[in-house]
Design goal:
This protein is 70% helix and 4% strand. It is mainly alpha-helical and 226 residues long. The chain folds into 2 domains: 7-72, Arc Repressor Mutant, subunit A; 77-212, Four Helix Bundle (Hemerythrin (Met), subunit A). Helix 4 (77-101) packs parallel to helix 9 and helix 6 (126-144) packs parallel to helix 9. Keywords: DNA-binding, Transcription, Transcription regulation.
Length: 226
C-alpha cells in the first residue's frame, strides 16, 4: 500500500489541489471540506489536510468554524471588486518596475508568451491560454523585484479563484483580454514604465467591469484564467 502524503509536501499538495478544485469549479462557495474525505481524495494524512486547511484559512480561501469544521469561504461581488482595486495598485507598481528592471531573458520570455497567447486564442486553446496568462502575471511580478507586492498579491488572489473561474467563462473573454495582456507585454519589453502601469490599470479596470456583470449565471465548462 502506498504511503500517504504527509509533512510539508503533503500540506502543499493538498492546498494546491484545493485551489485547483476551486478554479475548475469542483468546489463551490459554502461547500464543506471534510478532513477524512479530503485525505482519501488526495492520498494525504489528516494532519497534512488539517495544516493545508489552516494555510488556506490564512489566505481567506477557506473558513474554519469551531465545532463545525471547514468550508469554502464565499466572497461577495463587492468584496471581489475591492480586492481587484487593491490588486490593481500593486500590479501597476509591478508592471512599472518590471519595465525598468527586467533582464534580457525575462523580456524575451514575455515576447514568447505574447506570441503563444495570440496562437492560443486563434486555436481556441483555452487551457493553454490560461497557463500563459498565469505565467505572464507571475513573470511581471518576478521581473519587478517587488517582493512585498508579490506577497500581497498572492494573498489577494486567493479568495478570487471563484470569480476568475466565472469571468473566464464569459463568451469571448480570452479574445477580449488578449490585447490588454499584449499591451502590458509590449510596454514591459519596450522599457516604457508609464505605459506598463497604464496597461496594467486598464486590464484590471476591465476585470472590475466584468465583475459587476458577473452575477449572471455562467456556462459550465473548464475555463482559462481571466
Amino acid at each position: 500500500m502506498t504511503d500517504k502524503l504527509t509533512g510539508a509536501a503533503g500540506r502543499q499538495y493538498v492546498a494546491d489541489a484545493i485551489r485547483h478544485a476551486l478554479r475548475s469549479g469542483d468546489l463551490v462557495p459554502g461547500q464543506r471540506l471534510v478532513e477524512n474525505d479530503l485525505a482519501e481524495s488526495y492520498g494525504a494524512t489528516r494532519g497534512a489536510v488539517r495544516e493545508a486547511l489552516q494555510d488556506l484559512a490564512a489566505e481567506e480561501i477557506v473558513e474554519i468554524i469551531p465545532r463545525r469544521g471547514a468550508r469554502v469561504r464565499a466572497v461577495s461581488v463587492e468584496e471581489a471588486i475591492q480586492i481587484t482595486e487593491c490588486r490593481s495598485v500593486l500590479e501597476q507598481l509591478c508592471a512599472r518596475k518590471a519595465a525598468e528592471r527586467a533582464d534580457g531573458e525575462q523580456r524575451a520570455e514575455l515576447s514568447r508568451i505574447g506570441t503563444d497567447m495570440r496562437q492560443a486564442v486563434a486555436d481556441g486553446a483555452w487551457d493553454a491560454y490560461s497557463a500563459l496568462n498565469q505565467r505572464l502575471h507571475e513573470l511581471v511580478v518576478e521581473a519587478s523585484g517587488q517582493e512585498v507586492a508579490r506577497r500581497h498579491l498572492e494573498r489577494l488572489n486567493g479568495p478570487m479563484v471563484r470569480f476568475q473561474f466565472r469571468l473566464a467563462l464569459r463568451p469571448g473573454r480570452p479574445a477580449q483580454s488578449l490585447p490588454q495582456h499584449l499591451a502590458i507585454i509590449d510596454a514591459v519589453v519596450g522599457g516604457d514604465a508609464p505605459a506598463a502601469a497604464r496597461a496594467a490599470a486598464a486590464h484590471l479596470d476591465d476585470v472590475i467591469d466584468q465583475l459587476r456583470a458577473s452575477a449572471d449565471p455562467a456556462p459550465t465548462r473548464t475555463p482559462p484564467r481571466p
